[in-house]
Amino acid sequence: MPGQGDIALISCGESERFARLSGRTFIIDDGEILQGEVLDDVIVVGVVTHIIIALEVSDVPF
């Protein structure tokens, strides 16, 4: 179960989204707030533990 401020992958209906837990609400990546009865349909798929940032370096000669 995610803790306060954690980012989780949630399933709601037929879509999966990333959301941050804040109080008893989830704030999804587009800013929408999920709370109340909507949470009855939300399944926490997993909690984000690492974020990988791809770095492109165009001047590398290989």
List the helices and strands and how they pair.
Blueprint lengths: L6 E6 L2 E8 L2 E4 L4 E2 L7 E6 L15
Antiparallel strand pairs: 1-2, 1-5, 2-3, 3-4
Please explain how this structure is put together.
The chain is mainly β and 62 residues long. The chain has one domain (1-62). It contains no helices and 5 strands. The protein has strands spanning 7-12, 15-22, 25-28, 33-34, 42-47. A 5-stranded antiparallel β-sheet has the order 4-3-2-1-5, with no helix packed on it. It is elongated.
Short characterization:
The chain is mainly β. The chain has strands spanning 7-12, 15-22, 25-28, 33-34, 42-47.
Backbone structural class: mainly beta
Number of strands: 5
Percent range for β-strand residues: 35-45%
Please identify the oligomeric state: single chain
Per DSSP, the total helix count is: 0
Q: Kindly, what is the distance between the CA atoms of the first and last residues, rounded to a whole number of angstroms?
A: 44 Å
**How do the helices and strands follow one another from N- to C-terminus?**
EEEEE
The shape is elongated
Most strands sheet = 5 strands, antiparallel
Helix content: under 10%
